[in-house]
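look at this:
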Amino acid sequence: MADNGPGIPAEAMLRVFDRFFRLDTSRTHDGNGLGLSMVKAIVRLHAGSIILYDNNPGLRCVIKLPIKIQ
C-alpha cells in the first residue's frame, strides 16, 4: 500500500516502529504513536515482514506474510 502524504524522513524509518514514537510534524494531530508498532508486532507473530519505502511523495509499506499450504 502507498500514499502521497508527507512521508517519513529516512533517519526516522526504523524509529517509527518504536512504541510511542511520533515525528515532530505529527504532534499536532491525534494519536499516540502505537499504530505502526502494533502492525509490526502482528506481522511478526505471523512470521512475516514489514518494510517501509519512500514513495516520493508519501510512504510505501510492503507487508509479506507466509502462506501455509496444507
Observations:
- The two ends are 28 Å apart (CA to CA).
- DSSP finds one helix and two strands in the chain.
- Residues 35-45 form the longest helix (11 residues).
